[in-house]
């Protein structure tokens, strides 16, 4: 699917922006978060072709603007947190519907010395992977699915039912336990037709605004979980799909503020409930748009029945995904919380596994006879909704194309229908159980991540994850405030969810 702005040039901008006096621009940091600014039209027109200086600190701090514990190459004290060159992508032009249709452009980040994309530029990384395919005349198509919880924040300082003063979720959670944050709806009811009626203005506003902002939703429904929605974004060319996936999250968060709703894309917001996935669908095409994963005619003697309709190229691509997946886990599961979702018994992919129409495996093959040949694709089910879509799609392309180039063969058999992930029939290795384990493998000297992405990217992104791990190691959470009872010591620690820290008390002095 081509962009309607495909042929837009700087010469077209004065007429397109004739009735505007300002423009918004934004780039994507390593966490997939948009970072940008408002600038005057005059300024924008002057930098539209060659770009402008953008502080590199956005690659030197985490999502809370805390500088990384480890000095990283792209941005550090030694280089003075120097400016990068941010170049607007004119093809990304759209208008922001909830901000009076102000013009909006995405930017990519270049090194000021080489004028090449910096290694950790999200959009640049994906384009580098695409370049490997394009030199052989291939393209890639993708689709993204996001699940996310939604919460209502009680009005700040509310003393009556009529008090509707605005509230901050962060402020509420600072003063209250997380479990007291009310969900948009209660109970479990996936694919409900009646639940969206309860919040229909919000429900339809999201759908319609996404269309206006060119991050169209293809399917939109309730998912199983209190206040959980799922969106399947419109299928399209993979680099445009990554843009639209990032802009979808931006749209949802912006629209939700009008309704006093807080969307939550973290991988596992609630204990005992399913997590938020960010499944990615990918296929390769030739210059005519023909699906290259589809086999011309069924293989009468396939290595496994599941791949009877999958092309040789598709089999190599799948083999590449399976071999490399354990080495790129921080890209698809980037936070400490990500690994709370990737656990057994929650229909979550936890092993190097695949299967035809197998929704519990890490990679679900979608192919005939349950799909048309033109719809043949892989659904990579490991990523959570918290992952950077550019990094996820980059990982899928890099690993899959490596499999094609090396003509890799499938290393594990498919999971059969009814066979559980992690069960006796699952021959695939267990994926990392923590961000620390995943990052150590990602940064290993012989990791496939280094082979496909290069040392500079791995060192920088791995360093950002080491920062995350360090903060977690230093954190004292509610988990430590538990009941400990020992007859020999006569000491108890009581479970107090709102208190951070561990307390040991003499049970005779405490009354509840």
From TrEMBL:
Ranges for domain GS catalytic: 122-512
GO MF annotation list: ATP binding; glutamine synthetase activity
Superkingdom per UniProt: Eukaryota
GO biological process: biogenic amine metabolic process; glutamine biosynthetic process
UniProt KW keywords: ATP-binding, Ligase, Nucleotide-binding
Family statement drawn from the similarity comment of this UniProt entry: Belongs to the glutamine synthetase family.
Protein's recorded name: Glutamine synthetase
């Amino acid at each position: 699917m081509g962009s309607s702005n495909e042929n837009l040039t700087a010469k077209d901008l004065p007429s397109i922006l004739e009735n505007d006096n300002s423009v918004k621009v934004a780039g994507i940091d390593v966490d997939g978060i948009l970072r940008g600014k408002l600038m005057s039209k005059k300024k924008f027109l002057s930098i539209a072709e060659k770009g402008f200086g953008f502080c590199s600190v956005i690659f030197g701090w985490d999502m809370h603007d805390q500088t990384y514990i480890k000095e990283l190459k792209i941005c550090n004290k030694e280089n003075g947190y120097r400016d990068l060159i941010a170049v607007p992508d004119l093809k990304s032009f759209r208008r922001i519907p909830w901000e009076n249709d102000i013009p909006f452009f995405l930017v990519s980040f270049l090194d000021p010395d080489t004028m090449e994309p910096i290694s950790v530029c999200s959009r640049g990384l994906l384009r580098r992977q695409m370049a490997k395919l394009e030199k052989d005349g291939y393209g890639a198509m993708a689709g993204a699915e996001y699940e996310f919880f939604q919460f209502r924040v009680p009005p700040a300082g509310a003393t009556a039912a009529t008090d509707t003063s605005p509230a901050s979720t962060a402020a509420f959670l600072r003063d209250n336990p997380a479990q007291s944050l009310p969900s948009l709806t209660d109970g479990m009811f996936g694919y409900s037709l009646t639940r969206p009626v309860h919040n229909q203005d919000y429900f339809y506003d999201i759908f319609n605004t996404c269309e206006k902002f060119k991050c169209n939703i293809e399917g939109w429904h309730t998912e199983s979980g209190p206040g959980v929605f799922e969106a399947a974004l419109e299928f399209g060319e993979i680099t445009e799909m990554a843009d639209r996936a990032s802009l979808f999250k931006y749209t949802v968060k912006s629209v939700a503020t009008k309704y006093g709703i807080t969307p939550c894309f973290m991988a596992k917001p609630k204990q005992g409930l399913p997590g938020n996935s960010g499944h990615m669908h990918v296929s390769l095409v030739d210059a005519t748009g023909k699906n290259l994963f589809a086999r011309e005619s069924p293989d009468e003697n396939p290595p496994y029945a599941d791949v009877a309709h999958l092309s040789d190229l598709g089999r190599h691509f799948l083999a590449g995904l399976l071999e490399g997946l354990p080495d790129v886990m921080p890209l698809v599961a980037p936070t400490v919380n990500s690994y709370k979702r990737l656990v057994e018994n929650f229909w979550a992919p936890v092993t190097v596994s695949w299967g035809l129409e197998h929704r519990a495996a890490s990679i679900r093959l979608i192919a005939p006879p349950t799909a048309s040949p033109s719809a043949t694709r892989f659904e990579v089910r490991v990523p959570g909704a918290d992952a950077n879509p550019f990094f996820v799609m980059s990982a899928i392309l890099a690993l899959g194309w490596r499999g094609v180039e090396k003509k890799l063969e499938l290393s594990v058999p498919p999971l059969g229908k009814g066979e559980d992930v992690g069960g006796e029939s699952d021959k695939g290795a267990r994926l990392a159980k923590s961000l620390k384990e995943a990052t150590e493998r990602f940064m290993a000297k012989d990791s496939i991540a280094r082979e496909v992405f290069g040392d500079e990217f791995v060192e920088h992104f791995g360093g950002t994850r080491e920062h995350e791990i360090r903060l977690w190691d230093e954190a004292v959470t509610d988990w430590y405030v538990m009941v400990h009872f020992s007859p020999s010591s006569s000491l108890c620690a009581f479970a107090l969810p709102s208190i951070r820290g561990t307390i040991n008390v003499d049970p005779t002095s405490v009354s509840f």
